[in-house]
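Q: Sequence in, structure out?
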Amino acid sequence: MVKVSTTNACSWTARSNASWITVTSGATGTGDGSVAFSYAANIGALRTGTLTIAGQTFILTQAPCAYSISPDTVKMNVAGGTATINVSTGGTCMWTASSNESWIIITAGASGTGDGSVRLTVARNDGRKRTGTLTIAGRNAKVEQEDH
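A: Exactly. Output:
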């Protein structure tokens, strides 16, 4: 939030000069006030944008989202079962999770914003030892399951 201090009769406006920054309240005002803004998650390179508020330029610099998952390998016995993989990232960073195998099912946490977790269920294995992957926040998590 940016506070505006001016005389009572002075009117002002606020606008974003970048597509990823949105003025959410206080786009116009007279006298003292405040401007609130939000910004989209950054999935690319470091970026800079500006807000113009009451004729003044405010510079915002945003680092890209960084993601980590833990654990990155889940080991299951032949019976299968459930497991949880945690996602760590910045508070505005969005992520998704998907299974690359029919025998690994995401039961909770298929998407999120900020830190979160993915809950998965692994089906019983009646065949050979198998290895599969989940893609979570652009990272691969390995699931290894013992054979029958």
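The mean pLDDT is 94.
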